[in-house]
């Protein structure tokens, strides 16, 4: 198993270091895991003048899977757009054709009090958002800022081909088959042609999965339903921009954005694994960050890329155990729990394994 490790910026190196401890523990138990690190995001810009240096992309291509921390920081905000850290992330997703982004939102019972929603609304929550990741307004052309009739205009293009919609729909239906067999397709078909096509193509793909109950929902309603009654959802499939927004919203159902892992997969299950949160420059370098989303991303790697469910479960169970034992980083801490640092949390997970 060859893993390219890209810590990135801000809290990225701290949280990835905890995931590396987990990998070390697995190696000690006999798993053959090779890791190599490279720079991405602002770190890539600092090292090679490029948020996705050639060497990093080469390493990622040669690897079976990629583990990524986070990118971005205020010191890079004034760079030209193509040099900004976020562009490195978007490019690696596109270059590796990682079109299916899986973002599970799961509530650990002990964290019900950490959610801003009432415990009874979120108790037992287990949903999965499948976000299309290489299309939509994120990549559509034309895009830009230019002067028209004496004033500046900014524009982007929301665009999906039917083949792009079909392939992500197949992934979502496939996952729904292994879960609760309910899929909700989220779009804005009452206003956008792009969404109208999305809804039609998803309905066509549904014919191949007669056991899955398909529903459609407008994104504004979905945003509301997610906080009103999130447990009505099993799997949600949606486009890139809607998925970006809804997955941040869903993260708060589970108590903290520091708990949500993600997998970004290509057609052959090669994947990039990263927490859905950002680089949190305000707490970077202070050993305060929550490493659990990164460690849980590692569990997803074993499940989806390496097909090793047992190891995935071992990591997931270790996380469940440390939560049950009362260990909490600041973001999920509540009265009566043991407040720990990022590295202490990493050690606790390894001990629980
Ligand atoms: C995410 C992030 C990224 C995105 C940013 C950092 C470019 O918000 O992974 O959700 O918008 O996809
Ligand atoms: Mg986001």
Structure description:
It is a single chain. With 353 residues, this protein is an alpha/beta fold. The protein has 2 domains: 187 residues, 3-Layer(aba) Sandwich (Isopropylmalate Dehydrogenase); 133 residues, Isopropylmalate Dehydrogenase. Helix content is 41%, strand content 20%. The protein contains 12 helices and 14 strands. Strands 2-1-3-12-11-4-5-10-8-9 form a 10-stranded mixed beta sheet, sandwiched between helices. Helix 10 packs antiparallel against helix 11. The model has no long low-confidence stretch (mean pLDDT 96). The protein binds 3-isopropylmalic acid and magnesium ion (MG). The site of magnesium ion (MG) has 2 residues, from helix 9.
Helix content: 40-55%
Strand content: 15-25%
The secondary-structure element order is: EHEHHEHEHEEEHEHEHEHEEHHEEH
CATH architecture tag of the largest domain: 3-Layer(aba) Sandwich
List segments where confidence is low: pLDDT < 50 over at least 5 consecutive residues. Answer: none
User: Ions, cofactors, ligands: which are bound?
Assistant: 3-isopropylmalic acid, magnesium ion
CA(first)-CA(last) distance: 20 Å
Strand order of the largest sheet: 2-1-3-12-11-4-5-10-8-9
Q: Summarize model confidence as the mean pLDDT.
A: 96
Structure annotation, total helices:
12
Question: What is the rounded Rg?
Answer: 20 Å
Number of strands: 14
**CATH fold type of the largest domain:** Isopropylmalate Dehydrogenase
CATH superfamily of the largest domain: Isopropylmalate Dehydrogenase
Q: Please state the overall shape, judged from the principal axes of the Cα atoms.
A: globular
Count of distinct structural domains = 2
Largest sheet: 10 strands, mixed
Structural class: alpha/beta
* CATH class identity of the largest domain: Alpha Beta
């Amino acid at each position: 198993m060859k893993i390219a490790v890209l810590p990135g910026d801000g809290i990225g190196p701290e949280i990835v270091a905890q995931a590396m401890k987990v990998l070390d523990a697995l190696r000690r138990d006999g798993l053959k895991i090779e890791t190599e690190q490279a720079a991405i995001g602002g770190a890539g810009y600092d090292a090679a003048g490029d948020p996705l240096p050639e060497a990093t992309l080469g390493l990622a291509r040669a690897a079976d899977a990629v583990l990524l921390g986070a990118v971005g920081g205020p010191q890079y905000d004034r760079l030209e757009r193509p040099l900004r850290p976020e562009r490195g992330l978007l490019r690696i997703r596109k270059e590796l054709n990682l079109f299916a982004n899986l973002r599970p939102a799961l509530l650990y019972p002990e964290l019900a009090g950490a959610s801003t929603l009432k415990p009874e609304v979120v108790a037992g929550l287990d949903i999965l958002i499948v976000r299309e990741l290489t299309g939509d307004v994120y990549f559509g052309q034309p895009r830009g800022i230019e002067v028209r009739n004496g004033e500046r205009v900014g524009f982007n293009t929301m665009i999906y081909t039917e083949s792009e919609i079909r392939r992500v729909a197949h992934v979502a239906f496939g996952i729904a088959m292994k879960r609760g067999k309910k899929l909700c397709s989220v779009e804005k078909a009452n206003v956008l042609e792009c969404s109208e096509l999305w809804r039609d193509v998803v309905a066509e793909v549904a014919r191949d999965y007669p056991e899955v109950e398909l529903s459609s929902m407008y994104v504004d309603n979905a945003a509301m339903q997610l906080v009103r009654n999130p447990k009505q959802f099993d799997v949600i499939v949606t486009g890139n921009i809607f998925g970006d927004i809804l997955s941040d919203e869903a993260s708060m159902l589970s108590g903290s954005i520091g708990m949500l892992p993600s997998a970004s997969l290509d057609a052959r299950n090669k994947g990039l694994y990263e927490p859905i949160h950002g680089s949190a420059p305000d707490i970077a370098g202070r050993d305060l960050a929550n490493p659990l989303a990164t460690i849980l991303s590692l569990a997803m790697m074993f499940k989806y890329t390496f097909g090793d469910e047992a190891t995935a479960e071992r990591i997931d169970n270790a996380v469940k155990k440390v939560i049950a034992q009362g260990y909490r980083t600041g973001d999920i801490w509540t009265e009566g729990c043991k407040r720990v640092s990022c590295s202490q949390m990493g050690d606790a997970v390894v001990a629980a394994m």
